[in-house]
């Protein structure tokens, strides 16, 4: 299997990658391939951490569902307005489109709140937003939302779906409002630690921000430098300064390892063994198959007769989780941008299917979680 994986990573010109395979609540396989930092001669280890990109949305959704379980929030609650969760007058007073007052928590989770990216994704358009609004520094999320709420929604909430990073950034802000804690602290204390995960962190923007066990990120061949996100005028490598990663919060800012992601999934899967951190009802609600290809909660899609799917990509990284009906979970994270966009995720899904047929029955019966 490892030779096939090495050939696959070479074909996609990846500097480094991690694979983790679990079944039920047992970790069967975890391995690093290639380089965590090629220039420093550091090989990829299972304990290295990498940016998880939009896989972060699964983590955030679990945070929201924990608040639902604890009766601190309702999915039907409105987000904006005098009786909404984010009822700050700084938001309410700038809203001109009354449809904002109809947005609910569940609509944010399912990408049905009305946010679109026709003018570009606001979470990745910091330079342009700064120029349009004559800002001298990159806006924090509260400032950004005050700007965005002046715009009209792209559609009436609940009537359509458009993938939205803004929606999951708002969910991060909702967590902070409901818990009176920072988003990162709540997730660490109330989600990750109970799940047995101790090495998830909000990622930084630059090499100087790397954690001691965090990888170096790489762009694909032919990638050109770009202007830094904060309008400094500096040219930077895309994976180190094109976007403000920490500001993504629950939409795409977490970093972690494939093995820890496996442990996290084991805590939200209803499989006997490791204790789940959510109620049975919450997990079933998150993973209910949706009609018309509507998004599941946190996951991209959760078909009844296929794998639950969660993908993510940023400049310098790609991540994918496939959790199958037979309880097997396959996870891949890379530290290198690919040259074919979403084609990499689709190709990886095909690879996982092939490897499952060839090797699932050959994994030894063990639990590497217990060996940590």
From TrEMBL:
Residue ranges of every copy of the Beta-lactamase-related domain listed in the record: 11-336
InterPro entries in alphabetical order: AmpC-like, Beta-lactam-related, Beta-lactam/transpept-like
Gene3D superfamilies from the UniProt entry: DD-peptidase/beta-lactamase superfamily
Protein name: Beta-lactamase
Organism expressing this protein natively: Prevotella pectinovora
């Amino acid at each position: 299997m490892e030779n096939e994986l090495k050939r696959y990573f070479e074909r996609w010109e990846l500097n480094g990658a991690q694979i983790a395979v679990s079944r039920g609540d047992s970790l069967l396989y975890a391995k690093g391939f290639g380089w965590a930092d090629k220039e420093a001669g550091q090989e990829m280890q299972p304990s290295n951490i990498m940016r998880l990109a939009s896989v972060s949305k699964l983590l955030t959704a679990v945070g929201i569902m924990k608040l639902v379980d604890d009766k601190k929030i309702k999915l039907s609650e409105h987000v904006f307005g005098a009786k909404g969760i984010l009822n700050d007058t700084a938001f309410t007073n700038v809203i001109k489109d009354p449809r904002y007052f109809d947005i609910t928590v569940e609509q944010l989770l399912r990408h049905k709140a009305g946010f679109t990216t026709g003018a570009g994704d606001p979470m990745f358009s910091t330079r342009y937003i700064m120029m349009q609004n004559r800002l001298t520094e990159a806006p924090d999320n509260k400032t950004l939302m005050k700007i965005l709420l002046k715009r009209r929604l792209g559609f009436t909430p609940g009537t359509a779906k458009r993938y939205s990073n803004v929606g999951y950034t708002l969910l991060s802000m909702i967590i902070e409002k409901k818990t009176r804690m920072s988003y990162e602290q709540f997730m660490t204390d109330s989600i990750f630690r109970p799940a047995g995960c101790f090495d998830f962190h909000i990622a930084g923007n630059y090499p100087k921000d790397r954690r001691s066990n965090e990888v170096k990120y790489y762009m694909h061949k032919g990638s050109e430098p770009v202007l830094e996100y904060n309008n400094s005028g500096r040219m930077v490598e895309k994976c180190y300064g094109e976007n403000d990663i920490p500001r993504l919060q629950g939409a795409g800012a977490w970093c972690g390892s494939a093995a820890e992601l496996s442990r996290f999934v084991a805590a939200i899967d209803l499989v006997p063994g490791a204790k789940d951190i959510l109620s049975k009802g919450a997990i079933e609600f998150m993973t209910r198959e949706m009609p018309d290809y509507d998004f599941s909660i946190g996951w991209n899609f959760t078909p009844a007769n296929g794998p639950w799917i969660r993908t993510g990509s940023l400049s310098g990284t790609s991540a994918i989780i496939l959790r199958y009906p037979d309880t097997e979970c396959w996870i891949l994270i890379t530290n290198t941008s690919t040259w074919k966009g979403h084609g990499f995720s689709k190709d990886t899904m095909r690879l996982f299917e092939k490897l499952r047929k060839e090797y699932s029955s050959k994994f030894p019966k063990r639990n590497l979680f217990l060996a940590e």
